[in-house]
């Protein structure tokens, strides 16, 4: 191989990207020797890059297969992106409204409460919740005290269960009245 000719400006190398930069102008050439001139310049640049790699970078033997590798340094040239940096997405109508009203996203962690008796985190409410009762689905109010003055007999839970039924029945009556008023129009 030929030694690279002395140049007005030496090559600049970026070994991290395996880049050799030649800032010198191309020598004068005619149209018949363009390919030969470019080929010779590229060969000199590649030879300079290989020489620089072998002198500046450490050669490491791999533990896996015993092959030799050249450890490249970090790149010094920042390469441009292929596409422009994406613009930030515009907020949706709901996100603008939620920000204005101070509504945050609900998180699952906020629904948990530490149960000191069992030493575990449990839900505040709902299935297997802390206030929902004991494991196995038994409600926390399985025992109710009976007042001595109230008398004997009767189901004490009867009144507790009637409450929701009465409110549902009242809603149904109101809805039927509204429907009847709408039909008259």
In short:
Residues 175-185 have a biased composition (Basic residues). Among the domains are: 12-70, no CATH class; 107-134, no CATH class.
Please explain how this structure is put together.
With 185 residues, the chain is α+β, with helices and mostly antiparallel strands. Among the domains are: 12-70, no CATH class; 107-134, no CATH class. It has three helices and six strands, in the order ββαββαββα. It has a two-stranded antiparallel ribbon with strand order 1-2. Strand 5 (112-115) and strand 6 (120-123) form a beta hairpin. The model has no long low-confidence stretch (mean pLDDT 79). Keywords: Nucleus, Ribosome biogenesis. Involved in ribosomal large subunit assembly. Residues 136-185 are annotated as: Disordered. It comes from Meristemomyces frigidus. InterPro entries: Ribosom_reg.
Number of helices: 3
- Beta percentage is 5-15%
Structural class: alpha+beta
Radius of gyration: 41 Å
Poorly predicted runs:
none
The global form is: elongated
Beta-strand segment tally:
6
For the record, give the distance between the C-alpha atoms at the N and C termini, rounded to a whole number.
104 Å
Family: Belongs to the RRS1 family.
Region (Disordered): 136-185
Keywords: Nucleus, Ribosome biogenesis
Organism: Meristemomyces frigidus
